[in-house]
Amino acid sequence: MSIPDPSFNQAVLNITAQFLPQGFDVSLDAPSTYQRLKAHVARTGRLLVFGGASDRTIYGDPAVNHAFRAWHDFCHLEGGFDTSFVGEVATCRLQTRQLLTKYGDSDRTWRWQKLVEAGIVGQARHFERHGRFPVDQVAFVQANLRDPVASLHTPY
Hints:
Blueprint: H1 6-19, E1 25-27, H2 34-44, E2 48-50, H3 62-79, H4 85-103, H5 107-130, H6 137-146
Parallel strand pairs: 1-2
Helix pairs in contact: 1-3, 3-4, 4-5, 5-6
């Protein structure tokens, strides 16, 4: 699987624009909890996503990474899912269903779903084990796609 995947990047941008047609904001000081995210949106009417840690992502482009974060946070709010591990899994499932609904059942969509699962659930497991998210998301996702269990034994 090619990382970055230009077709996946375009899908992320398209689906983010569909759900957030007015856009979103990016800052190094973004809400870090579900409660703060809800409060920020209630106060401003806009999503605010974290702009840092975007240099070694599977998208190869910080703007696409920010769009994915906005779509992801939108799904947290849409589903009422907190940022616990269970909430991340539920948010991931919602995002993969949205990909399937928008782009149909195909090998391409299956690959995209695997990228989303590695990026959300895989990284959440990594966080639980190591107390931090992978710094090198590309290396982590590639390892996770090959062997999800083995990928957790290295603090990427």
